[in-house]
Every structure is written in C-alpha cells, then in structure tokens.
Design goal:
With 180 residues, the chain is of the alpha/beta class. It has helices at residues 2-14, 47-51, 67-85, 98-107, 122-126, 163-177; strands at residues 33-38, 41-46, 56-60, 89-94, 115-117, 141-145, 151-156. Helix content is 37%, strand content 21%. Helix 3 runs parallel beside helix 6 (163-177).
C-alpha cells in the first residue's frame, strides 16, 4: 500500500513535467516477446505475430493498480471492441510482474485485452518510454504501429484521458487508407 501511495505521489508530481516519447512517427518499432495475461490466462505475446494480423496499439503504463493506470485500463477495455472491428491488436505493457498483471488483466482490463510484463523495463527502454522521475517504470506512452513495423502515431502524457481517443483516431485513419 505504501509503495502504491509513493508511486501515485510521484506520478502526480510528474504531471507538471513534460513527457517525451523517443520513438517518432516513421521509426521502426522494436520487436519483442513478453509474458502476457488476458482474462487471467498467461501466454507469450509476440509483437511480430500480432503485426501480421494488422496494426498494434501498444501502450506503456507506469504501474498496475495505480489510479491513472486503472482509469486508462478501463478506458481501453471500454474501447477494445472498436479496436477489434478495425483489425487492431491492443496490448498494455508495464514493468510489473506477470502474477500481478494476471490479476490486473481480469479486474481492470476487464478481460478484454492483454497486458504484458516487462520486469526489467527492457521493452520500455527499447521504445525509450521510461519515466524519468521514477526509474525502472515506463512512462504513459501509446503507440500505433503499422503491420510494416513503422510507428504511425505516438502520444506521451501521464494524464490517461486522451490515450484511447487519440490512438483510436490513428487506427481509424490507417484503416481508411488500408481497407480490410
């Protein structure tokens, strides 16, 4: 509980600091495989395999069960059917352990989409999506990645409110140019 309060305080303080996503539109997104969980079931998530099906909405979040991350997970869960209709795969990634994320996948992601464990923040580092004020944790950064591994859209902001709207708009724009 104290750890979550400390994370929450650090994240609240971070709202005054600008967030920066290092990968830019047009960059090649790093491939990765990570242990993920959806609906309480663990499995290996492979980015290259997901991209074969269509665009991927990859969002990094600082810590499961914190206020902003819970809000964001609920919003992504509510929009998950829209992403699916557009042929997009949704995946959340955080520096937490898989057992904790298995619980989070059910309660906060509402079993609608997977979340992957990045315990050493290797994936977040490869995307340069690290939270500067809380080392070892990822920033709140959302990417839309095209099937050709190119970054289509990047949004980095610790406020969770616009991540779903902005990524959904980016997927819709991509889909308009690439009808199924």
């Amino acid at each position: 509980m104290i750890r979550h309060l400390a994370i929450g305080a650090a994240l609240s303080a971070a709202f005054v600091l600008p967030a920066h996503a290092a990968l830019k539109v047009g960059d090649t997104a790093p491939e990765f495989t990570a242990q993920a969980s959806q609906a309480g079931k663990q499995f290996p998530f492979n980015m290259a395999e997901a991209l074969k099906k269509g665009p991927v909405v990859l969002y990094f979040f600082p810590a499961a069960f914190t206020k902003g991350c819970t809000i964001e997970a609920h919003e992504f869960a509510d929009a998950s059917d829209e992403y699916k209709k557009l042929g997009a795969t949704l995946i959340g990634v955080t520096a937490g352990n898989i057992d904790r994320l298995t619980e989070f996948s059910v309660s906060e992601c509402r079993s609608k989409f997977p979340v992957a464990a990045d315990p050493d923040a290797k994936i977040a580092k490869s995307y340069n999506s690290m939270l500067a004020i809380y080392p070892g944790h990822s920033d709140r950064t959302s990417y839309v990645i095209a099937p050709d591994d190119k970054v289509l859209f990047v949004y980095s902001n610790l406020d969770p409110d616009q991540h779903v709207t902005k990524t959904l708009d980016a997927v819709k724009a991509w889909r308009a140019k690439h009808p199924a």
